[in-house]
């Protein structure tokens, strides 16, 4: 059994999804304990062996970088409307009055459920952005469903859920 660190100052926990969904009982139990610890102590973890192809991940990164490299005027075509939360925009992440402002460029979209999508905010440049985001978001959804199935059978799900 891999030892689970109890020191919250260690590195972000790494969870192996393949051990949670298709492994021996011992590996499954050990990884589930690591997941429980990660949710309770960190509320975040890195997921490995999740099954998302490198091609899907790379294409999403490329499309996102290309979008954010567009001129501001072009990105502003996707600016927030008073009636929608989806949008492209900028924000300052203010922590204190003395800090230098750190502006962030963001794009906030709802890929799921499909009925909640407002394609007016889904970029058409780069031309592959919409299809790439759809592919990527389906993969992320599949992972989320797998994690819920792993956690759901017992009270562990209810216990972990209160931390996230």
Automatic annotation (TrEMBL):
Coiled coil start-end: none
UniProt keyword Iron, yes or no: yes
Superkingdom, taxonomy of origin: Eukaryota
Residue ranges of domain Non-haem dioxygenase N-terminal in the record: 12-125
Keyword field contains Nucleus: no
Keywords, sorted A to Z: Iron, Metal-binding, Vitamin C
GO MF, one example: metal ion binding
SUPFAM superfamilies in the cross-refs: Clavaminate synthase-like
InterPro entries named among the record's database cross-references: DIOX_N, IPNS-like_sf, Plant_2OG-oxidoreductases
PANTHER family per the UniProt record, alphabetical: OXOGLUTARATE/IRON-DEPENDENT DIOXYGENASE (PTHR47991)
Protein name: Non-haem dioxygenase N-terminal domain-containing protein
Organism: Ziziphus jujuba var. spinosa
